[in-house]
Structure formats: structure tokens, C-alpha cells
Amino acid sequence: MSRAFEPPQGRQVFTRTFSPLPSDIDENGHVNNVVYLGWAQDLAIAHWRSQAPAQDQDAFAWIALRHEVDYRRPLLPDETATARTWVADRADGPRFERFVRIDGPDGAMCAQVRTVWVLIEKASGRPRRVPDPVVAMFA
Questions:
Q1: Do the domain assignments include residue 8?
Q2: Where residue 112 sits, what CATH number does that domain have?
Q3: Has residue 5 been placed in a domain?
Q4: I need a labelling partner for 45 at 20 to 30 A (CA). Which of 59, 105, 117, 137 fits?
Q5: pTM, whole model, 2 decimals?
Q6: In a domain, 123, yes or no
Q7: pLDDT digit string (tens) for 17-67?
Q8: 3-class secondary structure for the chain?
Q9: In a domain, 1, yes or no
């Protein structure tokens, strides 16, 4: 298990809360592991849409290349999770790392996700080097 993610000092952090739906609860009585990944993706999309100018949103899309998920504490049906996300300080060509930490109402980490996203040019469907202004917009 990797150590808990924390955003670097001064890094921009985007936050949302999530409350599980009845369909999110598995037979063990807590939020199903797959739900955390969905929340991480929803958070990343919301962050992109809140920051990126319309012309960038029209020109580019993000495709997940790899997800790594660590689970620590179950989230129960009546609990609300706080999810935070931030990105790496630099991109690697078309690849850009994003980190998500999902905490329970007690502040204890329920899950964390590291995703490698690839920037795609919508017109061609091909990967595109992440422009420096996009990195700066999120870092």
C-alpha cells in the first residue's frame, strides 16, 4: 500500500463532496470499490470543466491510460465523502498525472487514486503534448 497522497504546498486543489446512493452500496454494507473510481473520474472532469477555457474544452479530451487505487477505510451508506484532486507539476508529453484523495466525514482516507491521463486532440483523435498553459492552469 502506498502512503497517503497529499497535495504539495501551494498546489491548486479542487474539492467536491459525494454522498453515496443506495445503488452504490455493496453486499458488505459499504460503498463499492468501483464507485470510488467513478467519483475520481467525475471529479477530474468537473475540475477540467471548471478551469479550462471553452476553446480548450472544444479542442481537447482526456483519456485515462492507467488507474491505481488504494482502499483504506469503508465509506458507509449515511456518510458523505470529501474528494480532493490535484495534478502533477509537469506533464510528460501527452501524459499528465492526476491524484485524488477521498476522505470520510472523520477525515480518514477511504481511497486514493492516481491516474495517468492522455490529452487527445478531438479533431484528429490523436494524442497531443500537453501545452504549458494547460499545465500552469491546473498546477
A1: no
A2: 3.10.129.10
A3: no
A4: 105
A5: 0.94
A6: yes
A7: 999 999 999 999 999 999 999 999 999 999 999 999 999 999 999 999 999
A8: CCCCCCCCCCCCCEEEEECCCHHHECCCCCECHHHHHHHHHHHHHHHHHHHCCHHHHHHEEEEEEEEEEEECCCCCCCCCEEEEEEECCCCECCEEEEEEEEECCCCCEEEEEEEEEEEEECCCCEECCCCHHHHHHHC
A9: no
